[in-house]
Design brief:
heterodimer; A: mainly alpha; MetI-like fold; 15 helices; B: mainly alpha; 2 domains; two-stranded antiparallel sheet; 13 helices; globular
């Protein structure tokens, strides 16, 4: 009996701690969303608890940011969505095929290639920023979509992720397909892919979220307004001389809400990706 | 008779399958390998080559090899030494603080309470929010006169702080924000580690009369040591890459107090268009990151 009450108190304390700390972690984001729905004059007037409570709700900021001539945020969102989706789609094909080839269709040198790919994962992107810019410039891609897409299709991390998963697929499955007369391509497409849906989902979500947040690279290769991405777009709004806080809050919310929704709905795959990269590897 | 025929068939089949496999292996891996070579290996090699050259993008025909000139200039450059110091300061503070906060959060949401799931989402939300969004948002929060943080401090009787406007507080303000943004990521990794600690170990410790702290110290910490090592290494690499926060919030100021290695690399490469000098910074940056992770790996193994 005494043990039970002690446990109950422990649980209440834990719950309270989670909720209190949880509020501290979510508060800036909550303020962002609430402020985006307020008229300009109230944003820095409502302080304390009032900052987190909706008042005089309006969608004006969103309408202004998406459809006025001043900021073409709708277009920035499209640019990001398009380029990131292309990275995801081509990346899934190219990286999964490569991992499959290196793990299951071994050929002379394939083990060495695998070691090189894993080693490449440690190269920080920033250390090759300038030469990469020069390479991309030689292709004539500055201010063109390929600059935002092509360099990021092949990914050492994703190849590694697929490799970890494919290694766990039992040999018997492939041998059965082979005896049925399937060639390696058919084995990949009809046996391996359908059995690997979780790793495809994980790779897609991690790639989407990380490239949606890209800033430094688009900042230097997408200087033209026509191909500007969301992250660079909000930075321009922020440094604009006549700054409109409500519109910026709306832009920040529009940039963030899609990714938070992806996380909430696909939490399982997302977390699997993060943890499988380290804990089990 | 029948038996031999089938086995010959299988062998023949598997022979053609084996050669097919090897060829297709090359074909399947080729697209990724070509892309990795062009957009990863080649640029890394070029960074090393350019670092020994006098090469400005505004005058690409005038490039020439100048030996160690860029490196000599680098170690005489007061701004570089400041940037190096700032980057090390940020890393030295962020890594332990963030890892400790992350472990604390993981222990909390690992408890069997209803709020745990909600807590996980709350603590992780800043992680999926892009750093640019976070940096802009916190610039508003840190505002001296109308920021929510100073307003809250006033409520507790503390006077307004300059935060990003002061050379003494700017980097610490960035550190605080960075911990808030990324702790949820390490929390998830710790959580996965905590879930694999066998329940029996805790039960055995309880039988021996261990209290909460002793259980944490003698069961939890040793059982998740490999996870802790991994967290420390990735957090360190992440910390060295600090760029977006100073770029958006302070532009490296006030008086270079938030200028970092990557900030300097960007500035020299894309504002001054000095490819050679910027590449030398990139090489030094790469070596520091590599050395730090190798040293950490070695230390943590012991």
């Amino acid at each position: 009996m005494r043990h039970q009450t002690k446990q109950k108190i422990g649980k209440t304390v834990t719950t309270l701690a989670i909720l209190l700390l949880g509020f501290l972690f979510i508060a800036p984001l909550l303020w962002m969303i609430v402020a985006s729905l307020k008229p300009e004059t109230l944003i820095f007037k409502d302080m304390g608890i009032a900052a987190f409570l909706p008042k005089d709700m309006t969608l004006d900021n969103y309408i202004q940011i998406l459809f006025s001539d001043r900021a073409n945020f709708f277009h920035y969102m499209w640019n990001s969505l398009f380029s990131v989706s292309m990275i995801v789609i081509f990346g899934l094909i190219v990286n999964s095929l490569c991992a499959y080839a290196l793990v299951k269709l071994k050929f002379p040198g394939s083990d060495f290639i695998l070691i090189v790919i894993i080693a490449l994962y440690v190269v920080p992107f920033e250390s090759m920023l300038i030469p990469l810019y020069i390479v991309v410039n030689n292709f004539g891609w500055i201010n063109e979509y390929p600059a935002l897409i092509v360099p990021f299709i092949a990914s050492a991390f994703n190849i590694f992720l697929f490799r970890q998963f494919f290694m766990g697929i039992p040999k018997e499955l492939e041998e059965a397909a082979m005896l049925d007369g399937a060639n390696p391509w058919q084995t990949f497409w009809k046996v391996v892919v359908p059995n690997s849906k979780p790793v495809f989902a994980t790779a897609a979500i991690l790639t989407f979220v990380s490239h949606w947040s890209d800033f430094m690279w688009p900042l230097i290769v997408a200087t033209d307004e026509s191909i500007r991405t969301v992250q660079v777009g909000i930075q321009y709004l922020f440094t604009d001389n006549n700054i409109e806080y409500g519109q910026i809050m709306a832009a920040l919310s529009l940039t963030t809400i899609p990714v938070i929704l992806i996380f909430v709905f696909f939490q399982r795959y997302y977390v699997q990706g993060i943890t499988s990269s380290g804990v089990k590897g | 008779m029948e038996k031999t025929i089938t086995s010959v068939n299988v062998e023949k089949k598997s022979f053609t399958y084996e050669t097919q496999k090897r060829w297709l292996g090359v074909v399947f891996s080729l697209p990724a390998l070509v892309l990795l070579f062009t957009f990863l290996i080649l640029p890394v090699v070029l960074a090393f080559v350019y670092s020994f050259m006098n090469y400005n993008m505004l005058n690409p025909d005038g490039k020439e090899f100048t030996g160690l000139d860029n490196y000599i200039r680098l170690f005489k450059d007061a701004v570089f030494l400041t940037a190096l110091k700032n980057t090390l300061y940020f890393t030295a503070l962020v890594v332990p603080i963030q890892s400790a906060v992350a472990l604390g959060l993981a222990l909390l949401v690992n408890k069997k309470v209803k709020a745990a799931g909600l807590g996980r989402i709350f603590f992780f939300s800043p992680v999926v929010t892009s750093m640019v969004v976070v940096a802009i948002l916190w610039t508003f929060l840190y505002n001296v006169d109308s920021g929510l943080i100073n307003n809250t401090l006033n409520f507790f009787g503390i006077e307004n702080q300059p935060f990003l406007l002061s050379p003494d507080q700017a980097m610490n303000s960035i550190i605080f924000m960075s911990v808030w943004q990324a702790a949820g990521f390490q929390m998830m990794i710790f959580l996965a580690g905590l879930k694999e600690v066998p329940e029996e170990l805790y039960e055995a410790a309880e039988m021996d009369g261990a209290n909460v702290w002793q259980k944490f110290r003698n069961v939890t910490i040793p059982s998740i040591s490999h996870v802790t090592g991994f967290v420390l290494i990735i957090t360190t690499i992440q910390a060295f890459r600090l760029f977006i926060q100073p770029y958006v919030m302070t532009n490296g100021g006030p008086s270079d107090s938030t200028k970092t290695l990557v900030f300097m690399l960007y500035e020299n490469g894309f504002q001054f268009r000095d490819v050679g000098y910027s590449s030398a910074i990139a090489v030094v940056f790469f070596i520091i990151v590599l050395a730090a992770s190798l040293i950490l790996k070695k230390v943590l193994k012991q």
